[in-house]
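Hypothesis: this fold can be encoded by more than one sequence.
Test: take the structure tokens below, design a sequence, compare later.
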């Protein structure tokens, strides 16, 4: 740990910048070249392509950042466009008012489609949003008197399409800028803590709640961003086409936008642009004669791209470029070390305050059954502050269930859990995390698409972060930020999860079998870290562990669980002579003794 690096968050991650430059140039060239050449047909075609890029960037936020499936983006775009067109062409509102009404209507539609995401996910959510996209054209026809479905609605652009230079007009400038802003907005979100929180909530809602995030709220926020982009696209659509009719926003539009994201490359800056080129410009313009085969072309392209480049065109190009440049990428380095963090730990132990004498956590007579299996059968335990408290017991004895009951990942049938004297039995997992309960899992929840540092830095942080720990990891933030978590070995993934839990500033961190899969050296470092944390801070460590050697060496208190009950609890010295539990520790006498 020689040099200190800044952890100041960057607005846009370095590796996204090249693609942003390329994307900006592509969008600007696409819309401005035909404009300056005076080719009105291609000018309009490219502006419409830019409109689709805006909507696709929004959909990509949902798909790649929040891991939500929506086939309703075309419907949101359609409602925004239709209302803006009606407001201008029929209700005779000025353009700015019409645009505002369109945006509002699109947002309301988007949020209505988002509500089911609080209850259903994945394909179920996809089907619900698909229903919205299917319903829109029918609704437009059903209310034909209000929507003027039979004649369609013409829009009057009040001069924003008057040429300034050549055929350049405010509309072209505006749509081009908005498309560029959209790809920048996507990159800023991807680089932000908010974006990482969304990703964690999408990929592992369980892990997200243990760092104090609210996955449902994050999903709604992702829908709001995505709907906003679709609504902006809808309003721009009206400007570009100057007409809406009953056939303008069919299911095919929503399907196309979804495939644009998948085929273009989910989570990539250039994805929406490349997707629009392949799924709109190529079939609708370059292969105009094959218009009848659009759906067939979609299907074939999706199949081929998914076969050759499962990560989409932009992802595949990325991979190819990395191979060609033969850069042994920084992100392929695979080792993080706890040694510098251990070296930074102060030697002095924290003094015991009055507060420290009251127990941190009290579990009283907790019961939880799964069908006929009594996973917890009246378990009770007390965890003192600033200690390492281990829970041990045979396989299936209820240890993980006990941790889950403590961190709120499952509800209990009866009994109570108290944290710092406060009954948290019916408090949500996310709220418990915000009260200071951190947690890791048997299978580490590490996001491969994020760097090591981003994985550590993606939860909420309390006001009680561990000062020396924060200083130590800050010195490594820049280096870890260039490391790809996808290639970390299993043991190192555990480290990342534990560092994430400690970085949140917990009062208690509950670790589920953290030593499984660690090498001997890693175990020693890891045990030392847990001891240091408990000794030199007010953080308490609660650890479920099968590695009894480790437990015996680092735990202040050991609770033994069997059959869903606590059958013994005490210091290692006290348990050493207990005959009741001797059978559970055959083979570790050398440690105990
Ligand atoms: N979600 C669930 N549904 C049904 N049964 C469950 C569920 N979770 C746990 N169980 C059962 O409850 C009992 C206790 O499981 P638990 O995972 O808490 O044990 P454990 O001590 O952590 O085991 P291990 O050491 O193998 O991880 C087991 O019989 C298990 O099969």
């Amino acid at each position: 740990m020689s040099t200190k690096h800044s952890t100041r968050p960057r607005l846009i991650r370095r590796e996204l910048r090249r693609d942003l430059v390329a994307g900006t140039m592509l969008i600007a060239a696409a819309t401005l070249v035909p404009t300056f050449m005076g080719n009105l047909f291609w000018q309009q075609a490219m502006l419409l392509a830019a409109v689709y890029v805006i909507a696709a960037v929004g959909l990509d936020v949902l798909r790649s950042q929040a891991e939500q499936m929506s086939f309703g983006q075309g419907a949101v775009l359609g409602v925004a466009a239709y209302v803006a067109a009606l407001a201008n062409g029929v209700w005779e509102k000025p353009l700015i008012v019409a645009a505002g009404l369109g945006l509002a209507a699109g947002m309301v539609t988007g949020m209505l489609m988002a509500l089911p995401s609080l209850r259903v996910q994945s394909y179920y959510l996809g089907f619900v949003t698909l229903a919205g996209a299917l319903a829109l054209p029918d609704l437009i026809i059903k209310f034909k008197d209000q929507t003027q479905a039979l004649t369609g609605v013409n829009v009057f652009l009040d001069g924003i399409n008057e040429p300034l230079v050549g055929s350049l007009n405010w509309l072209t400038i505006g749509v081009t800028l908005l498309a560029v802003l959209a790809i920048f907005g996507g990159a800023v979100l991807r680089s932000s803590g908010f974006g990482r929180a969304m990703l964690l909530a999408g990929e592992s809602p369980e892990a997200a709640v243990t760092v104090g995030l609210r996955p449902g709220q994050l999903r709604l926020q992702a829908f709001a961003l995505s709907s906003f982009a679709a609504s902006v696209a809808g309003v721009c659509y009206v400007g570009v086409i100057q007409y809406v009719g009953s056939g303008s926003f069919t299911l095919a539009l929503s399907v196309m936008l979804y495939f644009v994201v998948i085929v273009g490359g989910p989570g990539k800056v250039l994805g929406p642009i490349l997707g629009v080129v392949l799924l709109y410009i190529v079939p609708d313009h370059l292969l105009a004669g094959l218009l009848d085969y659009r759906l067939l072309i979609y299907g074939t392209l999706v199949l081929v791209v998914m076969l050759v480049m499962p990560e989409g065109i932009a992802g595949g190009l990325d991979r190819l470029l990395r191979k060609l440049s033969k850069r042994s990428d920084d992100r392929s380095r695979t080792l993080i070390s706890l040694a510098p963090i251990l070296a930074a730990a102060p030697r002095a132990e924290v003094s015991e305050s009055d507060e420290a004498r009251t127990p941190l956590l009290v579990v009283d007579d907790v019961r939880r059954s799964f069908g006929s299996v009594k996973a917890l059968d009246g378990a009770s335990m007390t965890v003192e502050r600033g200690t390492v408290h281990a829970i041990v017991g045979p396989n299936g004895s209820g240890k993980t269930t006990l941790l889950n009951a403590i961190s709120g990942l499952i509800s209990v049938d009866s009994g109570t859990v108290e944290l710092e004297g406060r009954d948290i039995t019916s408090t949500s997992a996310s709220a418990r995390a915000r009260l200071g309960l951190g947690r890791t899992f048997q299978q580490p929840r590490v996001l491969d698409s994020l760097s090591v540092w981003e994985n550590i830095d993606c939860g909420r942080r309390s006001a009680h972060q561990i000062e020396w720990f924060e200083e130590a990891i800050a010195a490594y933030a820049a280096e870890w930020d260039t490391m790809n978590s996808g290639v970390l070995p299993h043991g190192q993934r555990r480290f990342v999860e534990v560092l994430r839990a400690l970085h949140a500033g917990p009062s208690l961190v509950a670790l589920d079998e953290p030593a499984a899969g660690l090498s001997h050296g890693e175990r020693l470092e890891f045990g030392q870290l847990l001891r240091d944390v408990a000794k030199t801070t007010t953080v308490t460590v609660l650890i479920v562990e099968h590695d009894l050697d480790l437990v015996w060496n680092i735990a202040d208190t050991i609770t033994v669980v069997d059959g869903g009950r606590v059958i013994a609890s005490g210091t290692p010295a006290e348990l050493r002579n207990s005959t009741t539990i001797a059978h559970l520790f055959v083979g570790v006498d050398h440690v105990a003794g």
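The chain is about 55% helix and 10% strand. The chain has two domains: 32-325, 358-444+508-592.
Hypothesis status: open.
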